[in-house]
Amino acid sequence: MGSVAALVSDRVRYEEKSIILASRRLSLPLKHVDAKDMVLELGRKRAEEIGCGTVLMRCVSFYRGLHMTAVLEGSGIRVINSFFTSNTCGNKLLSSVALERHGVKTPRTLVAFTPAAAAKAANALGYPAILKPVVGSWGRLIAPLKDEDTAEAILEDRTYMYPLYQVFYIQEYVNRPPRDIRCVVIGGRPVAAIYRYSPPGEWKTNVAVGGSSEPCKVTGEIEKIAVKASKAVKGEVVGVDMMESEKDGLLVHEVNHTTEFKAAATATGVNIAEEIVKYVFRSMKK
Amino acid sequence: MKGKCPECEADIDVPDDAVDGEILTCDECGSDIEVVKAGAKVQLRKAELKGEDWGE
Ligand SMILES: Nc1ncnc2c1ncn2[C@@H]1O[C@H](COP(=O)(O)OP(=O)(O)OP(=O)(O)O)[C@@H](O)[C@H]1O
Ligand SMILES: [Zn+2]
């Protein structure tokens, strides 16, 4: 039982399927558990429902993955990534705080808790600025604040939304080439990096919004920043996103704790799924 | 293997190498269908709709 690990997922995407196939190819005992079918009783040792001591958590639903990680860790299971990492990476404000504390350069960010204070923050940053929900991914609800009037309208709108949207996280618009860099870091080692280009007429580079990608050489500088960022969030398997700011150099804007890696694997030819599986089993021997 | 779409009952081809949890799309109604595999038993169920907290 000690040598078995489990992949916990709620939707099998390219990433999860390639992790399952990689474990079969490597003959490593990784069982697949569907989070949607789980009933977990609190206070049990090593959650029998899982039946092993190490879990690779890959839920696409952030809250499901986060809360399940809490339960599993509570029962003594080691979860990759940990509750601390998921909680930090899943929230842009907590991520920025962790990155700043560890000396990782990030875009200038102001935080406010009412639309009026947020408007002041946007004015202080200057326009355009960017309003980001603290929880959310794939570029969802990220709003460019073009000028004072648009800013006020958008900020006001958020008061009708769930309270989490009233934590106003406002960032300077970083002047950069029409791309950003995603570096996949496994066990403190960068294994692959890509440039993600925004599709025509769009400033976001997320592959989810239709961006394209190209391999990116992991320079000494990218390596240093990516590793530092992964350590700042205590991440074991993460995707570090950075931008090439014209005035400030490389800035990390987020770290992903259930990182997608299809684009990175395809563009670089690195078998990221195998690297992840090997890492999971290597880390169990320690 | 063949299965039935849980939404519209159309026939769906399940590839032999499909893994547990894999998502197929129904040609007929376009629904995302999830493959549930337990040993040799294969079932199809409607996949979850995209949630607001989905992401990476
Ligand atoms: N301050 C900024 N200035 C300019 N562009 C930015 C800034 N912050 C983010 N972007 C761009 O906006 C897009 C989405 O940003 P971000 O990665 O923070 O959002 P996300 O929703 O968490 O996306 P994902 O989790 O899929 O990477 C990225 O393409 C990024 O390059
Ligand atoms: Zn159908």
Order the strands across the largest sheet of chain B as they lie in space. 3-4-5
The global form of chain B is: globular
Structural class of chain A: alpha+beta
The tally of beta strands of chain A, per DSSP, is 13
> Measured on Cα atoms, how large is the radius of gyration of chain B?
12 Å
What labels describe this entry?
heterodimer; A: 286 residues; alpha+beta; Rossmann fold; D-amino Acid Aminotransferase, Chain A, domain 1; five-stranded antiparallel β-sheet; four-stranded parallel β-sheet; globular; B: Rubrerythrin, domain 2; two-stranded antiparallel ribbon; 5 strands; 0% helix; binds adenosine-5'-triphosphate; binds zinc ion
In short, what is this structure?
Chain A is α+β, with helices and mostly antiparallel strands. Chain A contains nine helices and 13 strands.
Give a structural overview:
The complex is a heterodimer of chains A (286) and B (56). Chain A has helices at 14-25, 62-74, 83-89, 92-101, 115-125, 148-157, 220-232, 262-268, 272-285, and strands spanning 5-9, 30-34, 54-57, 78-80, 109-112, 129-132, 143-145, 168-172, 179-186, 189-197, 212-215, 237-245, 249-256. Helices cover 34% and strands 25% of the residues of chain A. Chain A is built from 9 helices and 13 strands. The mean pLDDT of chain A is 95. Chain A is α+β, with helices and mostly antiparallel strands and 286 residues long. Chain A is globular and about 60 Å long. Chain B has a single domain, classed as Rubrerythrin, domain 2. In chain B, the strands form 2 sheets. A 3-stranded antiparallel beta sheet of chain B has the order 3-4-5, with no helix packed on it. Chain B has a two-stranded antiparallel sheet with strand order 1-2. Chain B is globular and about 35 Å long. The interface between A and B is medium-sized, with 28 and 15 residues. The complex binds adenosine-5'-triphosphate and zinc ion (ZN). Residues 5, 7-8, 10, 26, 28-29, 31 of chain B line the site of zinc ion (ZN).
